[in-house]
Specification:
mainly beta, four-stranded antiparallel β-sheet
């Protein structure tokens, strides 16, 4: 009986030892499964990514070009602070308007390590330079040679002479002050008229001008008409136009696009001038031309032709 009890006690101790060892092994296995061990032969990331960038404004102040100067990275995630994103290495981005935008770049490597940097980009519309105020050559017609108003050629044989010289111009100087007497001006007669009176002797005054692109300008001049007797189709008049572009041949100028076209048809008699101001917007090239002619059975006059920025 005592021998049997001793055997049971020994087996019980052996069972407890086996059970305890099993618990230890199971616990160790569980710990091993929870650990994220590195791959065999792997090395620590000695050069983790470092995010860095710079931003440069383009000719359009809303568009910025981003230069990526990050190190040890293979993928990039951009957040431009206005809802826009990109994964390009060096993106271009257009902001919606003026303001300060917090731009973030996250740079990552192939091991999944990442680094980010945030910089403020301040978008401000640059001040607009003053509009070009062009110099109109012989705009008061005091130079009787009138070469400044000649176009280079007329391929159809029309005369290059721009107008008849006249001493019956406006009694007003070019700067707007009153003159003591009449000044010189440009004159058209029946034989030098254009439009339906067109002939090889028709005279067209032309001058190429360069202004600020897409800016608002004023065309200004004064005119006088000696008589209006219903003897000219459409009435006695002068026409002053702004053409889109510069031209060397009068045929091309005559057929070109008009940015603005004005007609002066109030007949108050010789020496009685009417002022005309016509607004227009310069084309994107900034290249325009003044084009003038008369349509009259008697005499018509133009004086003090100017172009100047509208804000002035």
């Amino acid at each position: 009986m005592k021998k049997t009890q001793t055997l049971i006690t020994a087996n019980l101790k052996r069972f407890k030892s086996v059970f305890a060892l099993s618990i230890v092994l199971l616990t160790a296995q569980s710990c091993v499964e929870e650990l994220e061990l590195p791959e065999a032969g792997s090395l620590p990331d000695l050069t983790p990514p470092s995010a860095s960038f710079s931003a440069v404004e383009s000719q359009n102040y809303l568009i910025y070009n981003f230069s990526n100067t990050s190190q040890s990275a293979t993928t990039y995630a951009w957040d431009f602070g206005d809802g826009g994103t990109s994964t390009e290495v060096e993106p271009e981005h257009e902001f919606s308007g003026e303001g300060t935008y917090s731009v973030t770049l996250r740079a990552s490597d192939n091991l999944g390590v990442s680094n980010s940097i945030t910089k403020d980009v301040v978008v401000v519309e640059p001040p607009q330079p003053p509009a070009i105020n062009p110099d109109i050559l012989n705009g008061d017609f005091e130079d009787s040679s009138y070469d400044a108003w000649k176009i280079d050629s007329w391929s159809d044989g029309t005369t290059r002479n721009p107008y008849n010289g006249s001493s019956d111009g406006e009694p007003m100087l070019y700067d707007g002050t009153s003159a003591d007497s009449k000044t010189r001006g440009a004159k058209w007669t029946n034989s030098t008229s254009a439009a339906h009176l067109r002939s090889a002797s028709s005279r067209h005054a032309y001058q190429a001008v360069t202004v600020s692109p897409e800016r608002d300008y004023i065309l200004e001049y004064s005119y006088a008409i000696k008589n209006d007797r219903d003897d000219v189709t459409g009435g006695d008049r002068v026409e002053v136009q702004i053409l889109d572009g510069h031209f060397t041949d009068g045929v091309n100028a005559e057929a070109s696009t008009r940015i603005v076209s004005t007609v002066g048809d109030v007949a108050l008699g010789k020496g009685n001038f009417t002022l005309v101001r016509a607004p227009f917007t310069a084309p994107s090239t900034g290249l325009i031309s003044i084009w003038m002619f008369g349509v009259t059975a008697e005499d018509a006059y133009i004086d003090n032709v100017k172009i100047y920025p509208a804000e002035d």
